[in-house]
Design goal:
The protein is mainly alpha-helical and 445 residues long. Among the domains are: 2-97, Serine Threonine Protein Phosphatase 5, Tetratricopeptide repeat (Alpha Horseshoe); 123-179, no CATH class; 388-445, no CATH class. 49% of the residues lie in helices and 3% in strands. The chain has 18 helices and six strands. The chain has helices at 2-9, 28-34, 38-46, 70-77, 81-92, 134-180, 212-219, 225-228, 244-255, 259-271, 279-290, 295-307, 315-326, 331-343, 351-362, 367-380, 422-430, 436-439, and strands spanning 123-124, 130-131, 200-202, 209-211, 409-410, 418-419. Strands 1-2 form a two-stranded antiparallel ribbon. Strand 5 and strand 6 form a beta hairpin. Helix 11 packs antiparallel against helix 12. The longest helix has 47 residues, at 134-180. The relative contact order is 0.08.
Length: 445
Amino acid sequence: MLKLATACMTCTPPIDVDVRDTMAGFTPLHFACMHTNKKMVKLLLSYGADTTIKTNSSNDVQPPMRNGSPLEILMLMGKNRAHRSSIAKLLIVGVADRSIEGSSKICRGCGVKEGGRGLIKLSHCKCGLWFCGKKCQKEAWKTGHKEECKKLRKKNRKDVVEEEAVRKETATADSQQQEKEEEDVCPVCIEALQKNSTKFARYTCCGKGIHIWCYEGIQVSSLSLEQKSSCPLCRTKNAEAGSKQDIQQLRQWVEKGKAWAQNLLGQYYRDGVGVDQSYQHARELYDLAASQGEADARYELGVLYASGQGVNQSYERAAEYWEAAARQGYASAQFNLGFLYANGKGVKESIEIAREWWMKSAEQGNEAAIGGLQGLDEEEGRTIPSFIPKPFECETCYRPHDPTEHKLRPCKRCHRAFYCGKECQVKHWNKEVNGHKIRCNKKTK
C-alpha cells in the first residue's frame, strides 16, 4: 500500500495530498491518524501534507470529529494507543517541514544537513544554531562561536522583549474590548455563559444561549415533549439546523450586527449547511464577527488562512488571528498557535513559547495540547511530566470547577478527566463515540 501511495504522489501531474472527502472534510492525513498508521503519516508529511486542516463542522459529522485537526483526531480516536505518542511527536516536532530533498537544519561546524551521513540528528545551541555533536560544537566554540553565541543570545533576548511588549499591548486592547461587550447569561440559571461558544447552545429565535447542563436538565425533566423542543424563554419551537426557518432567524440577527449570528452563519457558508457553500461569504461574516471581538470567528479566520480556503494561504495571518483568539482563552487557538511556534510556521520558532501556549490549552483539558506537551517531554528526555491535569470543567456537561460551590472530582484511574459526580462520569464512560473508557489511562500519574 505504501509503494502504491508513493507511486501516486510522484506521478505527473502530482496528486494533491490534502484532498478532502465531500462529507466530513477528512484528508488522507486525518485517516492515517485515525488508524494510527505511522508509516503513512511519515510519507504524507514528507510530501508536505498540511497538519492544520480541520474537518467540517456540519451536523452530518459526529461530534468528536467536528473541527478536528489530524493531531486532535489522533488523540481522540486513534485506534492503537501504543503508537499515538510517536505519531503525535511526528506531527508536533516539525516533520511536516522536511521536504523530500532533506531538512533545513545544518551543522554550524561541519556543514552536514540533518538527514545526511546516516540520518544524523542535530541538536541546537542556546543561541539557536545547530550542531551534529559535542565535537563540532567544541571546535566551533574555540574558533569564534563563543563571541558569536553571546551576540546572538543578546539579540534573541532583545527580540523576546519586543515581542512581549507587543503581546502586552494586544492583551490590554483585548481586555478593554471584552469589558465593553454585553455579558450574556443563561435564561435558566441566570449565570454567565462561557466565552467559548462550543460549550453552550444558542437559540436563533430570541438569540439567547443556554448552558449544556441546563439544556440536559430540561431534557430529563417532567416537561412535555412540546416544551422540551421549544425555547425555554420565548417558547418558539426549535428550528432544525440549516432549515429555512433557522436561516431566516439567523439572518435577522446578522442584520442587527450580532457577532454570534455572524459567526454561526459564516460556519453555515463554510460547510454549505442550508446555504450554498462559499468560503468568500464565510470569510466576510467571520471578519464582521472578529471585529467585534468574537473569539470563535478569529479562530475560524486563522483556520482559513492556514489552509488557504477562500484566501491566499498565509501562516503569518493565521498566527495573528489565532493569537488574538488565544488571548481570549480559546483553547483550540492556543494549541494551534503553539503548533506554529513549535514548527516555526509564520512565526519565529520557539519551543518555550509553544510550551507556554500548550500549557494554557492543556489546563482547559485540550487533549491535543496534552499530547503535545508529552511529545516535548519525550523529546527533551524529561522523566517528570511538565503538565499535571487540574480541574477545569466537567467532561460531560462542561460545568466549570468552583472549589467552594461546585468542586469537581477526578477519574480515579487516570486523574486526567474531572466530573460533577458519579452520574456524569458514568455517562462519559459509556459514550459509544469518544467515551472515556477508550481514553482512560490505567497508569496513575
